[in-house]
Design brief:
This protein is 58% helix and 16% strand. α1 packs antiparallel against α7. By secondary structure, it is an alpha+beta fold. The chain has three domains: 211 residues, no CATH class; 91 residues, Orthogonal Bundle (Helix Hairpins), CATH 1.10.287; 167 residues, Histidine kinase-like ATPase, C-terminal domain (Heat Shock Protein 90, 2-Layer Sandwich), CATH 3.30.565.10. A five-stranded antiparallel sheet has the order 2-1-5-4-3, with helices on both faces. A five-stranded mixed sheet has the order 7-9-10-12-11, covered by helices on one side. A two-stranded antiparallel ribbon has the order 6-8. A hairpin with a 4-residue loop joins β3 and β4.
C-alpha cells in the first residue's frame, strides 16, 4: 500500500473509528445505567431520554400520584385529613425515591420521611408565582406543590418531594465512564495507528539508513529488498540501481587502474629495451668500437629505429589517454574506397619491402564506392593491424594480404597474414584493452596491449564492426565492415 494511501486511511480511521467505538461503548454503558436506574426507581419505563431530561423523567414517574393529589385537592380536599391515606400514598412513592409533606396553616402535619427542619423549611418555602413545582439544586430535590382548602376553611398544601440524588449520581457516573471510555478509545486507536505508521515509515527509513551506512563504509555488495508497490519500494529500487551503478563504476575503475598499472609496466619495459640498445650503441660510438663508416652508419640507423619504436610506444600511450576519456576529435569526410586504400597500401608496401615480406592487394569495389570516415584515424587502424602482423610474424616469407569487397550497403575489408595465428582461448579477447595474450611472447616482441582495442574503438565510432578469425600455425584475418555512402548523399556533398 502506498504511503499516501496509508496517511489518508489513518486520517479517516483517527476521526471515525473513535467515534464509532465511543458510541458503541456509550450504548453499552447507558444500557447498563438504565438497568440500574430501573432497579433504583422500581420502574420499567426508563428510556434514553432519562439522561437528556432527568427532571421530566422523575416527574413522569410520579405523574399518576400527582394527578391523584390534584384531583382530591379540587374535589375532595377532606381526603388529605386522612393520615392513613397519606401514609398509603407515601408508601407508593417510596420506591421511586419520593415522599410527601402535608402542611395546613403553615404547619407541617405529615412527614413522609424524616428530614431536617431546615430542609423542610426550604421545601415548604413559597414557589415562584404561577408555578406548581420547583427544583432545589443544593439538595438535589424536585418539589411539586398542590394547594387545597380544608373543610374548616384553612389553607393547606401537599408537597410531592422527589429525590434526584440517585438519578443524578447514575448520570454523573455514566458521564465519567463515557469520558474515560473516550480517552481510552482515543489512546488505543491512536497508539495502533501511530504504531502502524511508525512501522510503515520508520522501518523503511532504518533500512535505508543501513544501506547508506554500507555504502559509506565501502560495502557495495549488500542486497536491499525492493519488493512492494509503495513510495519506499520505488525509492529502494532507485537506491539499489544507484548502488549497482556505483559498484560497477568502482569495479570498472579498479579494473581500469589495474590495467593502467599493467600498461605502464608494459610500456616501461618496452621503452627500457630500446633505451638500453640506444645507450649501448652510443657508448660503442663514443668508445671508438665503430671504427668504420659502415659500422657507424649501422649504429646510427639502429639508434634511429629504436628511437622510432619509442616514439610509436609514446604515441600509443598518448592516444590511449584520449580514447579512454572519449576525447578523440574526428574529421569525418567522404573517402573514395579505391583511391584511399590504394594510398594506404603503397605506404605499407615500403615498410614490407624492407622486411622482405610480400604484400597482396585485391580491391574489388567499383571506382564510385565511398565511405564516410576520418582518413587519419582509419590509417591508424590499418597501421595497428599490419603492425601486429609484422610484430608477431615468425616466417621469413611473410605475406600480408588486403582484400576489399562490397555489396549494396556495405564495404568489407580483410587484412590477412600467414603468421603464427592466435589460439582459440585468446582470440575472443584480442580487442580488449591491455590484453596481450602470451605474456612471455609479448614481453619479447613489445607492445602495450591497446593496439587492437584502439582499432575497435575507432571502427565503432565510425558505426562499423570489426572481428577476427585465426588458425594456429596458419595465420590471422581481421575483418572490418563499414557502411557504404549513398549516391544521393554524394551529389549533395559535391554540391
Amino acid at each position: 500500500m502506498k504511503l499516501s494511501t496509508k496517511l489518508k486511511l489513518s486520517f479517516g480511521i483517527m476521526i471515525f473509528l473513535p467515534l464509532i467505538l465511543f458510541f458503541a461503548v456509550l450504548a453499552i454503558i447507558s444500557s447498563a445505567k438504565l438497568k440500574q436506574i430501573e432497579a433504583t426507581y422500581d420502574s420499567e419505563h426508563v428510556g434514553y431520554e432519562t439522561f437528556m431530561n432527568p427532571i421530566q423523567f422523575i416527574s413522569k414517574m410520579c405523574e399518576e400520584e400527582f394527578a391523584e393529589i390534584k384531583g382530591y385537592a379540587d374535589g375532595n380536599p377532606e381526603k388529605f385529613d386522612d393520615v392513613k391515606y397519606l401514609e398509603e400514598l407515601n408508601s407508593r412513592l417510596r420506591g421511586r425515591k419520593a415522599y410527601l409533606l402535608a402542611e395546613k396553616n403553615k404547619e407541617i402535619y405529615f412527614r413522609g420521611k424524616d428530614i431536617p427542619e431546615d430542609l423542610a423549611y426550604r421545601i415548604t418555602a413559597p414557589v415562584d408565582e404561577g408555578k406548581s413545582s420547583g427544583y432545589i439544586p443544593g439538595d438535589k430535590i424536585l418539589v411539586n406543590q398542590v394547594e387545597f382548602e380544608g373543610s374548616d376553611g384553612s389553607e393547606g398544601r401537599i408537597y410531592l418531594v422527589i429525590d434526584l440524588d440517585a438519578l443524578l449520581s447514575h448520570i454523573k457516573h455514566m458521564a465519567v465512564d463515557s469520558g474515560i471510555a473516550m480517552v481510552v478509545i482515543i489512546i488505543v486507536t491512536s497508539s495502533v495507528i501511530i504504531t502502524w505508521l511508525y512501522r510503515s515509515i520508520v522501518k523503511p527509513i532504518n533500512k535505508l539508513r543501513l544501506a547508506t551506512d554500507n555504502i559509506k563504509n565501502g560495502n557495495l555488495e549488500f542486497e536491499i529488498d525492493t519488493t512492494g508497490k509503495n513510495e519506499f519500494s520505488e525509492l529502494f529500487r532507485d537506491f539499489d540501481e544507484m548502488r549497482c551503478r556505483l559498484r560497477d563504476n568502482v569495479n570498472e575503475k579498479l579494473k581500469s587502474d589495474a590495467n593502467s598499472r599493467e600498461m605502464i609496466s608494459n610500456i616501461s619495459h618496452d621503452l627500457k629495451t630500446p633505451i638500453t640498445a640506444i645507450k649501448g650503441y652510443v657508448e660503442g660510438i663514443r668508445d671508438g668500437v665503430a671504427t668504420t663508416d659502415e659500422k657507424r652508419e649501422k649504429y646510427i640507423r639502429t639508434i634511429y629505429n629504436k628511437a622510432c619504436e619509442m616514439d610509436r610506444l609514446i604515441d600509443e600511450l598518448t592516444f590511449y589517454s584520449r580514447i579512454d576519456s572519449d576525447k578523440i576529435i574526428y574529421n569525418f569526410q567522404k573517402l573514395n574506397v579505391m583511391d584511399y586504400f590504394a594510398d594506404c597500401v603503397n605506404d605499407i608496401k615500403l615498410e614490407l619491402d624492407e622486411l622482405n615480406y610480400t604484400l597482396e592487394y585485391d580491391n574489388r569495389v567499383s571506382s564510385d564506392t565511398w565511405v564516410i570516415g576520418d582518413a587519419e584515424q582509419l590509417k591508424r587502424v590499418i597501421n595497428n593491424i599490419v603492425g601486429n602482423s609484422i610484430k608477431y610474424m615468425n616466417k621469413k616469407d611473410g605475406v600480408i594480404s588486403f582484400v576489399i569487397n562490397e555489396d549494396e550497403n556495405k564495404v568489407y575489408f580483410e587484412i590477412k597474414d600467414n603468421g603464427p595465428g592466435i589460439s582459440s582461448n585468446n582470440l575472443p579477447y584480442i580487442f580488449d584493452r591491455f590484453y596481450r595474450g602470451d605474456m612471455s611472447r609479448n614481453s619479447k616482441k613489445g607492445g602495450s596491449g591497446i593496439g587492437l582495442s584502439i582499432v575497435k574503438k575507432i571502427i565503432s565510432d565510425h558505426d562499423g564492426e570489426v572481428s577476427a578469425e585465426s588458425v594456429e600455425g596458419e595465420g590471422t584475418t581481421i575483418k572490418i565492415v563499414m557502411k557504404k555512402e549513398k549516391k544521393s548523399y554524394e551529389k549533395s556533398f559535391d554540391n
